[in-house]
Amino acid sequence: MNARTFHDARVVETADVATGIRRVVLEPPAGARRRADPGTHLDVRVEVPDGDRGVRPEVRSYSVVDSSPDGSRLALTVHLSPTSRGGSAHVHGLRPGDVLRCTGPLQNFPVRIGAERYLLIAGGVGITALAAAARTLTRLGAHVDLVYAGRSRDRMPYLADLQAELGERVQPAVSDEGTRLDVDALLARTARQAPGTEAYVCGPLALLDAVTHAWRRHGLPSTALRYETFGSSGRHAAQAFRVQLPALGIETVVDPGSTVLESLQRSGADLMYDCLKGECGLCVLPVRRVDGVVDHRDVYLSEDQQADGGSVCVCVSRVAAGPEGREPLLVLDLP
Ligand code: FES
What we know:
Protein name: PDR/VanB family oxidoreductase
Bound molecules: FE2/S2 (inorganic) cluster
Organism: Kineococcus endophyticus
Radius of gyration: 20 Å
EC number: 1.-.-.-
Largest sheet: 7 strands, antiparallel
Oligomer: single chain
Pfam families: Fer2
Shape: globular
Mean pLDDT: 91
Enzyme class: oxidoreductase
Protein backbone atom coordinates (compact mmCIF):
# COMPACT_ATOMS: atom_id res chain seq x y z
CA MET A 1 0.00 0.00 0.00
CA ASN A 2 1.35 3.42 -1.04
CA ALA A 3 1.94 5.90 1.85
CA ARG A 4 -0.44 8.35 0.14
CA THR A 5 -3.28 5.82 0.06
CA PHE A 6 -5.99 6.50 2.62
CA HIS A 7 -6.91 3.71 5.02
CA ASP A 8 -8.96 3.34 8.20
CA ALA A 9 -6.80 3.67 11.33
CA ARG A 10 -8.28 2.83 14.72
CA VAL A 11 -8.08 5.33 17.56
CA VAL A 12 -6.51 3.45 20.48
CA GLU A 13 -5.83 6.26 22.95
CA THR A 14 -6.74 9.90 23.50
CA ALA A 15 -5.46 12.25 26.19
CA ASP A 16 -5.30 15.97 26.90
CA VAL A 17 -1.60 16.84 27.00
CA ALA A 18 -1.96 20.62 27.50
CA THR A 19 -4.73 23.20 27.63
CA GLY A 20 -6.82 22.73 24.48
CA ILE A 21 -4.31 20.25 23.05
CA ARG A 22 -5.13 16.58 22.60
CA ARG A 23 -2.97 13.58 21.80
CA VAL A 24 -4.60 10.91 19.62
CA VAL A 25 -2.85 7.58 19.10
CA LEU A 26 -3.76 5.67 15.95
CA GLU A 27 -3.28 2.03 15.02
CA PRO A 28 -3.12 1.64 11.23
CA PRO A 29 -4.27 -1.67 9.71
CA ALA A 30 -1.55 -4.35 9.43
CA GLY A 31 -0.82 -3.83 5.71
CA ALA A 32 -0.46 -0.06 6.07
CA ARG A 33 2.09 0.20 8.89
CA ARG A 34 5.19 2.26 8.14
CA ARG A 35 7.90 3.72 10.31
CA ALA A 36 7.37 7.45 10.86
CA ASP A 37 10.66 9.33 10.45
CA PRO A 38 11.13 12.73 12.13
CA GLY A 39 9.30 15.45 10.20
CA THR A 40 6.55 13.21 8.86
CA HIS A 41 2.83 13.95 9.01
CA LEU A 42 -0.41 12.19 8.22
CA ASP A 43 -3.07 13.56 5.91
CA VAL A 44 -6.40 12.84 7.60
CA ARG A 45 -9.97 13.09 6.34
CA VAL A 46 -12.10 15.28 8.58
CA GLU A 47 -15.62 16.65 8.36
CA VAL A 48 -16.01 20.40 8.66
CA PRO A 49 -19.18 22.52 8.98
CA ASP A 50 -20.55 23.68 5.63
CA GLY A 51 -23.33 26.19 6.40
CA ASP A 52 -26.77 24.99 5.39
CA ARG A 53 -25.21 22.02 3.63
CA GLY A 54 -24.30 20.36 6.99
CA VAL A 55 -20.73 19.07 6.76
CA ARG A 56 -18.25 18.42 3.99
CA PRO A 57 -15.15 16.22 3.92
CA GLU A 58 -11.74 17.87 3.86
CA VAL A 59 -8.14 16.82 4.32
CA ARG A 60 -5.90 18.17 7.08
CA SER A 61 -2.23 17.46 7.79
CA TYR A 62 -0.97 16.75 11.33
CA SER A 63 2.61 15.95 12.36
CA VAL A 64 3.43 12.55 13.82
CA VAL A 65 4.80 13.49 17.24
CA ASP A 66 6.01 9.99 18.09
CA SER A 67 5.51 6.44 16.88
CA SER A 68 6.45 2.86 17.54
CA PRO A 69 9.37 1.58 15.41
CA ASP A 70 7.10 -0.78 13.44
CA GLY A 71 4.52 1.95 12.71
CA SER A 72 1.74 0.12 14.60
CA ARG A 73 1.14 3.21 16.80
CA LEU A 74 1.30 6.75 15.47
CA ALA A 75 0.58 9.71 17.75
CA LEU A 76 -0.84 13.03 16.55
CA THR A 77 -1.25 16.07 18.77
CA VAL A 78 -3.81 18.67 17.79
CA HIS A 79 -4.63 22.12 19.14
CA LEU A 80 -8.34 22.97 19.23
CA SER A 81 -8.00 26.33 17.54
CA PRO A 82 -10.78 28.93 17.92
CA THR A 83 -9.98 30.05 14.35
CA SER A 84 -9.93 26.48 13.06
CA ARG A 85 -12.03 25.67 10.03
CA GLY A 86 -13.35 22.56 11.79
CA GLY A 87 -10.57 20.00 11.35
CA SER A 88 -9.20 20.24 14.87
CA ALA A 89 -12.73 19.98 16.35
CA HIS A 90 -13.20 16.75 14.40
CA VAL A 91 -9.98 15.28 15.80
CA HIS A 92 -10.82 16.45 19.34
CA GLY A 93 -14.15 14.63 19.04
CA LEU A 94 -12.48 11.25 18.45
CA ARG A 95 -12.67 8.56 21.14
CA PRO A 96 -10.90 5.19 21.51
CA GLY A 97 -12.51 2.70 19.13
CA ASP A 98 -13.35 5.37 16.51
CA VAL A 99 -11.90 5.16 13.04
CA LEU A 100 -9.97 7.94 11.31
CA ARG A 101 -9.35 7.77 7.59
CA CYS A 102 -5.72 8.77 7.00
CA THR A 103 -2.60 8.20 4.92
CA GLY A 104 0.64 6.63 6.07
CA PRO A 105 3.47 8.91 7.27
CA LEU A 106 4.31 11.49 4.56
CA GLN A 107 7.52 13.48 4.57
CA ASN A 108 7.80 17.17 3.75
CA PHE A 109 10.01 18.39 6.61
CA PRO A 110 13.00 16.03 6.56
CA VAL A 111 15.90 16.51 8.93
CA ARG A 112 19.28 16.41 7.23
CA ILE A 113 21.64 14.21 9.18
CA GLY A 114 25.28 15.30 9.44
CA ALA A 115 25.09 19.03 10.17
CA GLU A 116 27.71 20.58 12.43
CA ARG A 117 25.05 21.69 14.90
CA TYR A 118 21.24 21.89 15.09
CA LEU A 119 18.92 24.56 16.42
CA LEU A 120 15.29 23.48 16.66
CA ILE A 121 12.81 26.27 17.43
CA ALA A 122 9.26 25.26 18.35
CA GLY A 123 6.35 27.55 19.17
CA GLY A 124 3.50 25.94 21.15
CA VAL A 125 2.03 22.92 19.42
CA GLY A 126 4.76 23.32 16.75
CA ILE A 127 6.72 21.00 19.03
CA THR A 128 4.85 18.13 17.36
CA ALA A 129 6.95 18.55 14.21
CA LEU A 130 10.26 18.78 16.11
CA ALA A 131 10.06 16.46 19.13
CA ALA A 132 10.96 13.34 17.13
CA ALA A 133 13.84 15.18 15.43
CA ALA A 134 15.22 16.29 18.80
CA ARG A 135 15.10 12.72 20.12
CA THR A 136 16.62 11.18 16.97
CA LEU A 137 19.43 13.73 16.67
CA THR A 138 20.26 13.33 20.35
CA ARG A 139 20.37 9.55 19.95
CA LEU A 140 22.76 9.99 17.01
CA GLY A 141 25.07 12.08 19.18
CA ALA A 142 24.47 15.35 17.30
CA HIS A 143 24.82 18.72 18.99
CA VAL A 144 21.24 19.88 19.26
CA ASP A 145 19.50 22.76 21.04
CA LEU A 146 15.71 22.68 21.25
CA VAL A 147 14.29 26.13 21.99
CA TYR A 148 10.65 25.64 22.95
CA ALA A 149 8.54 28.80 23.28
CA GLY A 150 5.04 29.19 24.66
CA ARG A 151 2.79 31.57 26.54
CA SER A 152 2.62 29.36 29.65
CA ARG A 153 3.68 25.82 30.60
CA ASP A 154 0.11 24.56 30.56
CA ARG A 155 -0.01 25.33 26.81
CA MET A 156 3.28 23.56 26.03
CA PRO A 157 2.65 19.86 25.41
CA TYR A 158 5.45 17.39 26.19
CA LEU A 159 7.70 20.04 27.75
CA ALA A 160 8.26 18.11 30.98
CA ASP A 161 8.80 14.81 29.09
CA LEU A 162 11.33 16.38 26.75
CA GLN A 163 13.22 18.03 29.60
CA ALA A 164 13.36 14.71 31.44
CA GLU A 165 14.66 12.92 28.34
CA LEU A 166 16.94 15.53 26.80
CA GLY A 167 18.02 17.59 29.81
CA GLU A 168 19.70 20.90 29.10
CA ARG A 169 19.32 20.53 25.36
CA VAL A 170 15.76 21.77 25.94
CA GLN A 171 15.60 25.53 26.51
CA PRO A 172 12.07 26.60 27.48
CA ALA A 173 11.05 30.19 26.78
CA VAL A 174 7.86 30.79 28.73
CA SER A 175 6.28 34.24 28.34
CA ASP A 176 4.34 34.32 31.61
CA GLU A 177 7.50 33.35 33.53
CA GLY A 178 9.39 36.32 32.08
CA THR A 179 11.55 34.19 29.78
CA ARG A 180 9.84 35.12 26.50
CA LEU A 181 11.83 34.02 23.44
CA ASP A 182 14.09 36.77 22.10
CA VAL A 183 14.55 35.56 18.53
CA ASP A 184 16.95 38.34 17.58
CA ALA A 185 19.28 37.68 20.53
CA LEU A 186 19.15 33.91 19.90
CA LEU A 187 20.12 34.23 16.24
CA ALA A 188 22.71 36.94 16.90
CA ARG A 189 24.35 34.46 19.28
CA THR A 190 24.07 31.67 16.72
CA ALA A 191 25.69 33.83 14.02
CA ARG A 192 28.52 34.75 16.40
CA GLN A 193 29.22 31.40 18.01
CA ALA A 194 28.05 28.70 15.57
CA PRO A 195 27.42 30.02 12.04
CA GLY A 196 27.42 26.44 10.71
CA THR A 197 24.17 25.71 12.56
CA GLU A 198 21.22 24.25 10.70
CA ALA A 199 17.85 25.48 12.02
CA TYR A 200 14.40 23.91 11.89
CA VAL A 201 11.39 25.96 12.95
CA CYS A 202 7.76 25.09 13.50
CA GLY A 203 5.15 27.34 15.04
CA PRO A 204 2.75 30.17 14.35
CA LEU A 205 3.31 32.58 11.51
CA ALA A 206 4.57 35.36 13.82
CA LEU A 207 7.39 33.09 15.04
CA LEU A 208 8.34 32.07 11.48
CA ASP A 209 8.35 35.72 10.41
CA ALA A 210 10.57 36.69 13.35
CA VAL A 211 13.01 33.83 12.71
CA THR A 212 13.25 34.29 8.93
CA HIS A 213 13.86 38.03 9.26
CA ALA A 214 16.42 37.70 12.06
CA TRP A 215 18.12 34.82 10.22
CA ARG A 216 18.60 37.09 7.19
CA ARG A 217 19.57 40.10 9.30
CA HIS A 218 22.40 38.21 10.98
CA GLY A 219 23.76 36.95 7.66
CA LEU A 220 23.05 33.27 8.27
CA PRO A 221 22.79 31.15 5.09
CA SER A 222 19.22 30.76 3.81
CA THR A 223 19.88 27.13 2.82
CA ALA A 224 20.43 26.25 6.50
CA LEU A 225 16.94 27.36 7.62
CA ARG A 226 13.94 25.07 7.21
CA TYR A 227 10.47 25.57 8.51
CA GLU A 228 7.06 23.99 8.79
CA THR A 229 3.97 26.16 8.88
CA PHE A 230 0.57 26.11 10.50
CA GLY A 231 -1.38 27.09 7.40
CA SER A 232 -4.37 28.41 9.30
CA SER A 233 -2.79 30.95 11.64
CA GLY A 234 -3.11 34.57 10.59
CA ARG A 235 -2.88 38.05 12.04
CA HIS A 236 -6.62 38.72 11.95
CA ALA A 237 -9.55 36.55 13.06
CA ALA A 238 -11.17 34.79 10.12
CA GLN A 239 -14.31 36.58 8.94
CA ALA A 240 -16.58 36.32 5.90
CA PHE A 241 -15.69 38.41 2.84
CA ARG A 242 -16.68 38.65 -0.81
CA VAL A 243 -14.36 37.48 -3.56
CA GLN A 244 -14.73 38.20 -7.27
CA LEU A 245 -12.94 36.66 -10.24
CA PRO A 246 -14.28 38.73 -13.16
CA ALA A 247 -12.39 36.73 -15.81
CA LEU A 248 -14.65 33.76 -15.00
CA GLY A 249 -17.71 35.80 -14.03
CA ILE A 250 -17.51 34.56 -10.42
CA GLU A 251 -18.63 36.39 -7.29
CA THR A 252 -18.97 34.42 -4.06
CA VAL A 253 -18.61 34.70 -0.30
CA VAL A 254 -15.68 33.14 1.58
CA ASP A 255 -17.08 32.12 4.94
CA PRO A 256 -14.79 31.92 8.02
CA GLY A 257 -14.56 28.14 7.64
CA SER A 258 -13.51 28.14 3.96
CA THR A 259 -10.55 29.37 1.96
CA VAL A 260 -10.64 31.60 -1.12
CA LEU A 261 -9.49 28.63 -3.18
CA GLU A 262 -12.29 26.36 -1.93
CA SER A 263 -14.91 29.05 -2.47
CA LEU A 264 -13.75 29.74 -6.04
CA GLN A 265 -13.61 26.02 -6.78
CA ARG A 266 -17.17 25.57 -5.51
CA SER A 267 -18.19 28.31 -7.94
CA GLY A 268 -16.66 26.37 -10.83
CA ALA A 269 -13.12 27.82 -11.09
CA ASP A 270 -10.46 25.30 -12.09
CA LEU A 271 -7.36 26.65 -10.34
CA MET A 272 -3.85 25.30 -9.79
CA TYR A 273 -2.73 24.34 -6.28
CA ASP A 274 -0.54 21.81 -4.51
CA CYS A 275 0.54 22.22 -0.87
CA LEU A 276 -2.59 24.02 0.44
CA LYS A 277 -0.30 25.44 3.16
CA GLY A 278 0.99 28.65 1.61
CA GLU A 279 4.39 27.18 0.82
CA CYS A 280 4.59 26.25 -2.88
CA GLY A 281 3.15 29.36 -4.54
CA LEU A 282 1.20 27.38 -7.15
CA CYS A 283 -2.13 28.97 -6.16
CA VAL A 284 -0.93 32.60 -6.29
CA LEU A 285 -3.34 34.94 -8.12
CA PRO A 286 -2.89 38.62 -9.03
CA VAL A 287 -4.94 41.05 -6.94
CA ARG A 288 -6.96 43.68 -8.86
CA ARG A 289 -8.59 45.38 -5.87
CA VAL A 290 -8.97 44.97 -2.11
CA ASP A 291 -11.44 46.60 0.26
CA GLY A 292 -9.99 45.84 3.69
CA VAL A 293 -6.67 44.31 4.69
CA VAL A 294 -5.12 41.24 3.12
CA ASP A 295 -4.16 38.81 5.89
CA HIS A 296 -1.25 37.05 4.18
CA ARG A 297 -0.98 33.63 5.81
CA ASP A 298 1.60 32.14 3.48
CA VAL A 299 5.36 31.84 3.67
CA TYR A 300 5.81 31.80 -0.10
CA LEU A 301 5.54 35.51 -0.95
CA SER A 302 8.40 37.69 0.24
CA GLU A 303 7.85 40.47 2.74
CA ASP A 304 8.07 42.99 -0.12
CA GLN A 305 5.60 41.07 -2.28
CA GLN A 306 3.14 40.89 0.62
CA ALA A 307 3.51 44.60 1.38
CA ASP A 308 3.11 45.47 -2.30
CA GLY A 309 -0.25 43.62 -2.29
CA GLY A 310 -0.13 42.64 -5.97
CA SER A 311 -0.71 38.94 -5.39
CA VAL A 312 -2.10 36.52 -2.86
CA CYS A 313 -1.86 32.80 -2.03
CA VAL A 314 -5.54 31.87 -2.26
CA CYS A 315 -5.12 28.54 -0.42
CA VAL A 316 -4.53 30.24 2.95
CA SER A 317 -4.68 34.05 2.84
CA ARG A 318 -7.83 36.02 3.64
CA VAL A 319 -9.21 39.54 3.79
CA ALA A 320 -10.26 41.29 7.01
CA ALA A 321 -12.24 44.51 7.36
CA GLY A 322 -10.02 47.60 7.30
CA PRO A 323 -10.22 50.63 9.61
CA GLU A 324 -12.63 52.36 7.19
CA GLY A 325 -15.18 49.63 8.09
CA ARG A 326 -16.23 48.81 4.51
CA GLU A 327 -17.42 45.27 3.77
CA PRO A 328 -14.23 43.33 2.93
CA LEU A 329 -13.85 42.45 -0.75
CA LEU A 330 -11.10 40.80 -2.79
CA VAL A 331 -11.10 41.09 -6.60
CA LEU A 332 -8.71 38.71 -8.34
CA ASP A 333 -7.36 38.20 -11.84
CA LEU A 334 -6.10 35.04 -13.45
CA PRO A 335 -2.29 34.75 -13.77
S1 FES B 1 -1.27 25.66 -2.91
FE1 FES B 1 0.78 25.93 -2.30
S2 FES B 1 0.85 28.02 -1.72
FE2 FES B 1 -1.23 27.67 -2.14
